[in-house]
Amino acid sequence: MHWGYLLDQFAMTFMNHRTDEYGGDLENRLRCAREILEGVKAACGADFVVSMRLALKSYIKGYNQPSLHGEDEVGRTLEEGLTIARRLEAYGYDCLSVDFGQYDSFYYAAPPCYMEKGRVIDLAAACKQVVKIPVLCGGRMNDPALAAQAIADGKLDAIVLGRPSLADPAYAQKVAMGCPEDIRPCIGCNQGCIGALKAGRRAGCAVNPQAAREAAFALTPALEKKTVLVVGGGVAGMEAARCAALRGHAVTLCEAGEKLGGNLIPAGAHHFKAELAELNAWYQRQLAKLGVTVETGTALSPQDILARKPDTVVLAVGAALLFLHGLAYQMAASGTAESVFYLCYTFLLLLPLGVACYLFPVLSRFTFGVGGLLSNCARLAIVHLPSTLAMALELYLALELLLRIPLIALVLFPGLTALFQSFFLERIFAPYIRAQLGAEDEDEGNS
């Protein structure tokens, strides 16, 4: 009876407008839940345990209208949720698994990393006060210490884990073994699990490549032990090193920077993204436990790699989706004056896609991340060259206003887009680069 599914729809006056025995007062609206329980007990026996997942509060103002703080509630209030809990106990339900929210308030139904862990505990504690059957609690409860304290305080009897079980199926086992630090953290991103389902893909996990693919990606002992060199200490490199070590290989991980983590470092810098920093720390603990040799501050050239004579090399040094995007990144990071030109040029080339996604939002689902390059360039400019960002955005907005119609034509006719890019590459970009390279060669000769 949660997330707005059928039993939720029967129970809420906001959705249930029936005039028969399944509509009207609360007893009638709960009739379906009672009859389901009676049917299960009749078929399976009175001692067959039946639980109900109950959202104690809906947090909605209307269809597709969430209520961030629960004001103007048209769904289930906490008071009604507690009344329903008492009635479900009276019907004979053996335990309640409580949470909050529904699809119309998905921020609560599947809490992301931006919501603090354990926010549902107070609601569960209120439920615990009005029923005698066990109360289980779910929804961002993936903190063993927090969960243990809530149980010790009598606020709930147990926790339930959904997404954290995808991130680490051995979660409960590791807690029981006294090594919670080995639990791979769920980062609350909703991308690999629920997000994949909503996009029509098979569910998995963004931090656990084996989730729902355990047979295909099973880590079996290697028949032949090898020396493995992993170049790049970002999340991909650390995962590759971890998996190779688990299979029994001798692994060395080299990272050009002074710290492991790659993009996990800036991504996990904010307090509301702490799970990403936790994931980085988890990887580093696992590499240490597995005996992976880690060398930071070690940039490897092809000759360096050959000199080490590894059996296998894994290159995990990162990539740019487009050449021009990578070029803009390099120039923005270098802080040179030419970055103005390159950033503006990148904006210009991506303008057709940006305008198309702006006018037709559905197209953004099919851009495979390319549409995000515009925001990526903006982020880089903010970090490295605020003044460049201002100029680039001014150019972008002006061109979007002046060229919207012809740019739509470029999107609709790929040939025109290719001609558009070819013109800038051959007539403007290539000569400029050649001139710059010539100037650099001349400067080196003079020096």
Chart the SSEs and their pairings:
Elements: H1 6-11, H2 26-29, H3 31-44, E1 51-55, E2 60-62, E3 65-66, H4 78-91, E4 95-99, H5 106-109, H6 121-130, E5 135-137, H7 144-152, E6 158-159, H8 163-167, H9 171-176, H10 194-198, E7 227-231, H11 235-246, E8 250-255, H12 264-267, H13 274-289, E9 293-296, H14 302-308, E10 312-315, H15 323-334, H16 339-359, H17 373-384, H18 386-412, H19 414-446
Parallel strand pairs: 1-4, 4-5, 5-6, 7-8, 7-10, 8-9
Antiparallel strand pairs: 2-3
Helix pairs in contact: 4-6, 11-13, 15-16, 15-17, 16-17, 16-18, 17-18, 18-19
Would you write up a description of this structure?
It is a single chain. This protein is an alpha/beta fold and 447 residues long. Helix content is 49%, strand content 9%. It contains 19 helices and 10 strands. The strands form 3 sheets. A 4-stranded parallel β-sheet has the order 1-4-5-6, with helices on one face. A hairpin with a 2-residue loop joins β2 and β3. α11 packs parallel to α13 and α16 packs across α18. The protein is elongated and about 80 Å long.
Radius of gyration over all CA atoms, rounded: 28 Å
Helix content: 40-55%
Shape: elongated
Order of strands, widest sheet? 1-4-5-6
Low-confidence stretches: 321-342, 363-388
Query: What percentage of the residues does DSSP assign to strands (E)?
Result: 5-15%
The average pLDDT value, as a whole number, equals 82
SS field, number of helical segments: 19
What structural class do the secondary elements suggest?
alpha/beta
End-to-end CA span: 76 Å
By DSSP, the count of extended strands is 10
H-E order = HHHEEEHEHHEHEHHHEHEHHEHEHHHHH
